[in-house]
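Quarterly update from the structural biology core.
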Amino acid sequence: MPSRLLIAACLLVRLLAGAGAELAAELARLDTKARDPDGKLVVAALVAEHLGVHRNHLVFERRQTGRSYSQILVSVLESQKVSEAEMLARVRQLNADIEETLGNAPAGAVPLLLLSTAIDHNSTGAFYSLTPEVGIDAGPVALLAGVPLYRNGASSPAAAGIGDVYAAAYLRGSRGIVDLGASLTAGFPTGDRERGLGAGKTTVDGVGSLGFHFANARFFVNAGMTNSVFNNVGYQRPYITDGPAAHFSGGLEGRWAGRVTAGLGAFAVRPFGEQEVWSRVVTTQTAPVTLPGRPSPLPLPLPDPRPGRTGPLRERLRSLGLLETVQWIVTPGEDLQDHGPNAWVSFLVGPGVSFDVAVARSIPFHLTAVRAGLSFDVGHWIQRARGAH
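Predicted structure, tokenized:
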């Protein structure tokens, strides 16, 4: 009897090992087809259909995480408690479907057409944004350009207009459980800095990222350098800085049922050298109120624009009180050091639509910022409409 049990156990181990090897081979076949210029659109469409999500959402996730289509597929199936045998059958069928339709697959890069809207609120006021973006995704390389429209509700009266037009390039790759990425974003001074709508100069922000993915979870760290801090680091700030700064972020995020992504992390900003700080609360639109029959009020003397490293002015800067009375100051970078925790959650509410919520807490500035917004994959709707005809 013990010998029969031993033989049965050995057979089971061989079967499991064989199933694991077959699954790995099928996944490798899927990724090989995804790397082919004529096959990646077919792979993206069929994998998205199998997972119950739209194709451009899957492409966007791949661009953000650096994971391959097979890794995303396995992550979602594991979160659904799909057995290895069933997973093998599904991937095998996927490969068969891909091979069947590969001849009709369109060639070239995947077009991206996105629209996002958000409300950022903190104790100084609310900032509204509407950002259309257009670009292409060509596998390991993606290009994206955007034209943000802002309404600065923190100033009185509120300022509205175009922000800084930007263009971004993304590089990413993966090997096993490790994914690497890099991005370079250039902003152009189309927004009015004195109204809190732009940086007032050409900006450059370079970021490198490293991630590790395990089933439906991913741990990541990012590090970057920029020459201006606006809304590119951590949260939408009530001020704009002009000066070099290093920034860091990281966290752990997970995905459930292919529709919900949530994460918890932290950020840090370390400006260095002399920094110009422009308030988004006090702008050139702010004017004193003059009552009929009374002379205009005399201008109040402003404090020294260089508040120094110690004293009450620095304390007012750290509490953001100074930026509620002065439009522009110059201060050492150490006065603007910032860090704190953040959290986010994203819901795929329907084809081409996601609802996003994020919260960040600045510990040095005692500021909590909350963002809520909707993202629309317009490209997905256009392609679906064309397919219907």
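The chain has two domains: 2-104, 110-287+302-388.
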